[in-house]
Design a protein that fits this description.
Layout lengths: L11 E5 L4 H12 L3 E6 L38 E3 L2 E5 L22 H7 L3 E6 L5 H15 L4 E4 L20 H28 L38 E6 L12 H21 L4 E8 L14 H9 L10 H11 L11 E4 L7
Parallel strand pairs: 1-2, 1-6, 2-5, 6-7, 7-8, 8-9
Antiparallel strand pairs: 3-4, 4-5
Helix pairs in contact: 1-2, 1-7, 3-4, 4-5
């Protein structure tokens, strides 16, 4: 495992769909790199799953789930209420995943923001529905009230409604409800997250996205993120003002069978990322997209029992018959939110084990 190096030290990050899977992994990785993490989801922990999924997706959850994030089951947690948020902040030594029974309910484990607290980090959970403009506006405002600013916005929340069906459905078989729900969360939710984070980034004249400039990179003290100076010691040519990371999918770059609404929503995510990068480059705001491949998460558990579909997916991975790990994608998210990506914007980054090569 890569040793954290404090690349996000002192920065404030919002992550939607934070309660499980990829969203949780990103939160934990950001906290390990020194960021204060503002976790947004419908619930502080992943809700119990009542059905299994049948098709893969790089990010998202089934329609029956009451959380917007990807992946593996997340335990419950202990938190202290503060208005509509639950705050968890602490200092101390790093600890492993809390054992069963450490949460408020017997047999349940701590969730994302409580796990960060128990490892000595800073985190807050806030309930919001990413499809509601007022929810997202208030969530960003609550983050600013809690931490003073927003440096990083990760729009991870997503659903894969089509993965709940017993077989892949083509376009003429796809219901309007499936289409509307998928686009509402995966496209509109991302748009709203970008909109209100951008308003804050643009309006914060006192923002200092790089509170601990690295002289070896040529950073200018108090001027923002890393620049073109590199290791030459020359002053940077620009200062970064904010970082947006949108979680798209390889299915936003290439299609997959029986997922018309999911592919459309992730294609929209990729193009929205590029458009925002173009519009806000003069404001020194970075916007990039993560495009994960098929991940070993709760959403793909049922897929792994379907030999034909699984064999087709595994055959497209040059590294061998394996699904990806959320931790690998989370590391890429850290990179895109750090000074290491100071000269990158508008790029969809595949983290897919070579899936797109085939």
């Amino acid at each position: 495992m890569t040793t954290p190096s404090g690349r996000l030290q002192g920065r404030v990050a919002i992550v939607t769909g934070s309660s499980s899977g990829l969203g949780q992994a990103i939160c934990l990785a950001f906290a390990a790199e020194g960021a204060s993490v503002f976790c947004i989801d419908l619930h502080p922990t992943a809700a119990p799953r009542h059905n299994t999924s049948t098709a893969a997706g790089a990010a998202g959850r089934t329609a029956e789930s009451s959380s917007w994030s990807t992946g593996v089951p997340l335990p419950s947690l202990h938190y202290s209420s503060r208005g509509s948020s639950a705050t968890a902040t602490a200092t101390g030594t790093a600890a492993a995943t809390p054992p069963p029974g450490s949460g408020p309910n017997p047999g349940q484990q701590a969730g994302t923001h409580e796990r960060i607290r128990q490892t000595g980090g800073e985190a807050t959970w806030h309930r919001a529905d990413v499809t509601r403009a007022r929810d997202m506006e208030l969530a960003v405002r609550a983050c600013v009230q809690q931490y003073g600013r927003v440096d990083i916005m990760v729009n991870n929340a997503g659903v894969s409604v089509e993965s709940t069906h017993p077989r892949p459905l083509r376009c003429h078989e796809t219901g309007e409800d499936d289409w509307d729900r998928t686009l509402a969360v995966n496209a509109k939710g991302m748009f709203l997250g970008c909109k209100y984070a951008l308003k804050q980034m643009l309006g914060d004249s006192n923002a200092n996205p790089n509170p601990n400039p690295n002289p070896n990179r040529g950073d200018v003290s108090g001027s923002g993120g890393g620049g073109a100076g590199g290791t030459s010691g020359q002053p940077q040519r620009y200062a970064s003002r904010g970082w947006i990371v949108n979680v798209a999918s390889v299915q936003g770059l290439v299609p997959y069978y029986g997922t018309p609404s999911y592919c459309a929503s992730k294609g929209a995510a990729v193009m929205l990322t590029k458009q925002i990068a173009l519009d806000y480059a003069p404001d020194r705001i970075h916007c990039n997209a993560l495009c994960p491949g098929f991940l070993d998460t709760r959403m793909t558990q049922n897929l792994q029992s379907q030999d034909r579909l699984l064999a087709d997916i595994q055959s497209k991975h040059p590294f061998g018959g394996t699904l990806g790990c959320v931790d690998d994608v989370a590391k890429a998210a850290v990179f895109l939110a750090s000074d290491d990506a100071a000269w990158i914007t508008g790029v969809p980054v595949p983290v897919d084990g070579g899936y797109l090569l085939r």
